[in-house]
Amino acid sequence: MKHLIYFLSFLLSPTISYADCTLQNELHGQKHFICRAPGTSKDVHVLDFQGGFAETAYYHGYFLRPEIERGILRGVQVRTERAFNELSNKEKETFMLIKNCVIDNYRHSVSNEFKAGLKNLHKGLRDAGGHIEWNAFEETNYMVEFSIFVDAMQRQLEESPTKGKFKVFSSCAPYFVGNSLLKPFKKLAQGLRSLKMGCTGISASATGSTDGALVHGRNFDTGLLGFYEGQQVIVINRQKNGITSVGLGSAGLHYAGGISGINNYGLSVSLHELQTEGTRLRYERGESDIAPYLLHAVLQNARTLNEAIGMIQTRKGFGAWTFFISDSKTDESASIEMSGDTVVVARRQQHAFLGQSNHFLAAATSVEGYEYSLNKTLETRARMTHVNRTVQENWGAIDAQWVINRLSGHYDELVGPRSFGRTTTKVYTAATHVMVPGRQEWWMSVGETYPTNRSHFVGFRLTQDRSNPVQILGVTKAAEDGDKASWYDSMGFYVQAYLSNESDSKSLAGLDQTLKLLQQAQEGSRMNGVFEFPYHFMWARMKVYRAARAILLGDRATAFADLTEAQEKIREITETAYASLHPYEQFQLALWNFRAETLKPQAKTNKNVQHASRVQAQTLLAGLIKKHPQQRELYDLRWSLQQTEQLDIVLDADIRLGTVE
User: How does pLDDT run across 574-591, given as a tens digit for each residue?
Assistant: First the structure.
């Protein structure tokens, strides 16, 4: 009989304590502890600082140099370098000028405190023996905002080249002519999407809980998976203003409260990234800040929800964000949306709940917001619908464990149980945080396995004892169906396939490694009688891409074999699961079947089959356009289906294992 099981116990008793934290370093009263997650070999670093952001940043760098050098800042550099390497030498020269101009505008606009914190962190790194150069280090801290700008520019250049170019020209010297910007902006935007933070949030008020405590949870979903989860850090700042803040982040992310955090005035926060055409490049000197630091500053300075909102409305920003904030004192929460210099309180609830995902809801920000594909549009709304429905259904029974279970879930609100895609658990979930600010407690995944929210969650409570700054409350895991162990295990192979594709998405050897991992995922899910559309479809999708790469190399025999296998897999999916698929997924099958048929050698393709597959894809697409007329990606796909030659289209298409496209 199917049943839900909990791995390990969920321990909330205040009498339970684990003595697993040891003092590792101390300098000038600033302390670095290492806490071993009970029952695991994973460590969490705890930095207990006296002072604010800028004055303590040095010690973050000094204490954690090895972790920083292989952590999230290194990940940003790797992903950025890879994105720029997709450009031709001429394109790269142009875009280095654009990047330098945009970051110079950011540098002009941000606060002196933020800039001082960067300098102090870098000095700490260098004094500890690090060798990262200042320019590279500084740029890394602006790249997430730059990635939003690049996305927005691609969108604007597609819709209005004149308007798009003017946005660059208005703040940068006019180096650029003609329509040559669009294609490189598209390539760069695709590469920098790995820096995104596409996350799910839940805030449930005390009135809906089992023990009268507001709970605020979030998944941190990022293409920096592989760099983030191995170096997790809790940053405590005990300030002279009487506010003690706790930021949950990763080594080198010194404004850790810009991911998730709490303070001793009962505020809990999380940051969620969106997309907008309304980016802003420049403010008067020192008037603004990058969004992650701004939220960190909120934790360090705000005592109430109103103060937090006021800070965000005053400072504003550059890109597209939602600041998700709860206040346990008043049992309320709010979602503050930012689109460049447009800031609006989109939603605010007391004694109720809010779900959060990655699309704008307020009218003022929605007019500038967008998603890059229909499936992304469906995905972000499905996650929010799922959270809101399940919180409402379980109102009165919410606690930290419930939020852990929900954020670790595998239910697609549009089609039912799924491994990945439109589920709250993403293939690129790097961390899950669940905070109970009224009790100064939080639970965090330690990421010793994939997906990361299958790992152990460790509970912490902040103390006033600087010799023992955190009390470990216990460990837990998300609930799972005990009869589907192989299905859950298969998800780890899919995550590894995603990481493999991130590492090498071009060479045949790299593609073979990804395909092998997808095959292992298929086999694992089959052991529990589960046919996982993401595993099978992405395998077929990548086989078509592999065939295109083989054609470039002149190996048409290999290409034909790959295309044949891809079409066989598409037929298997159609025969096994077609009726259970969403119309967009049905269209994707038809689209890639047509593209596979078109790539076959002239002597081996069947013109009647090719025509029939094109008509099927066009018919399904017409239905999607009728239902979603504002989704511009669908019109691009309609154009692509009209083309005789599909090789360049296949090679340029973005492979998205995260949203299963």
Answer: 999 999 999 999 999 999
Question: Which residues, at least 6 apart from 81, have a Cβ–Cβ distance to it below 8 Å?
Answer: none
**DSSP at 629:** T
- What tokens appear for 453 in the block? 């929210």
Compute mean pLDDT per 10 residues along the chain, 661 residues long, and list them. 39 46 96 92 96 96 96 91 89 87 95 97 97 94 93 82 66 53 78 80 97 97 94 97 97 94 98 94 95 97 98 96 98 98 98 97 96 94 98 98 98 97 96 98 97 97 96 96 97 98 93 98 98 98 98 96 98 97 98 97 86 97 97 95 95 92 91
Q: Which secondary structure element, helix H or strand E, spans residue 103, and what is its range?
A: helix 89-109
Report the distance separating Cα 494 and Cα 537, nearest Å. Answer: 12
| Cα separation, 409 vs 219, whole angstroms | 11
Helix (H, G, I), strand (E, B) or coil at 180: coil
Task: Name the residue type at position 561.
Answer: A
CA angle centred on 431, ends 198 and 216, rounded to 5°: 80
- What is the DSSP annotation of 373-439? SHHHHHHHHHHHHHHHHHHHHTTT-B-HHHHHHHHT--EETTTEE-SSSSSSS-TTEEEEEEEEGGG
**C-alpha closest to that of 540 among 509, 571, 510:** 571
Which amino acid type is present at position 570?
I
Q: DSSP for 236-254? A: EEE-TTS-EEEEEEETT--
Side-chain-facing half-sphere of 478: CA atoms under 13 Å: 26
Q: What pTM was computed for the model?
A: 0.94
Q: What is the pLDDT of residues 234-252, one digit of tens each?
A: 999 999 999 999 999 999 9
